[in-house]
Write a structure and sequence with these properties.
Layout (H helix, E strand, L loop, with lengths): L12 H17 L2 H5 L2 E9 L7 E4 L1 H14 E13 L8 E14 L4 E13 L2 E9 L2 H7 L10
Parallel strand pairs: 1-6
Antiparallel strand pairs: 1-2, 3-4, 4-5, 5-6
Length: about 160
């Protein structure tokens, strides 16, 4: 039986990092089908903060709804991977925890532009995301794109 070309090989951390980057690029294109290919049917997504989309999403339908809402809100969005770390670089696809530091640049449908850094922790099982928890370094920046008061400019 052949290996799915979208799945990393056992022990191939560089390939896995490239797949993380490709998923971030799919997010930037607002390609829901490509983003959802990574998710297990019983996946859980948790987003910290006080925005209309902060909270816990359980199952593919709820997670897809989260991404639809975010994609509708963002006129443009780009995620750039800065660092990726694994708890088990020898067995990437069976069960693993992956830590991703990234930068978010986004513009809302109203023209509010933000730049933020974030950390996400992914739990993978058999090549699919079963959970993701994400934190923004400055949650007030993320709140600004959802219509809350914009953060003050840095001095």
């Amino acid at each position: 039986m052949g290996r799915d070309a979208s799945s990393p090989r056992r022990g191939d951390g560089e390939v896995f990092e490239q797949l993380v980057q490709r998923n971030m690029e799919a997010f930037g294109r607002k390609d829901l089908a490509a983003v959802m290919r990574w998710w297990a049917d019983d996946g859980i997504l948790e987003l910290a903060g006080h925005t209309p989309v902060s909270g816990r999403y359980e199952g593919r339908d709820a997670i897809a709804g989260f991404f639809r809402t975010v994609f509708e809100r963002y006129a443009s969005v780009r995620l750039t991977v800065r660092h990726v770390a694994f708890t088990n670089p020898v067995a990437l696809t069976y069960r693993n925890t992956v830590y991703v530091e990234s930068e978010l640049e986004a513009t809302s449908s109203e023209g509010v532009t933000i730049h933020d850094e974030r950390i996400a922790v992914f739990e993978y099982r058999r090549g699919k995301v079963v959970s993701m928890r994400e934190w923004a370094f400055d949650p007030t920046i993320i709140e600004a794109i959802w219509g809350h008061e914009a953060p003050p400019a840095s001095a």
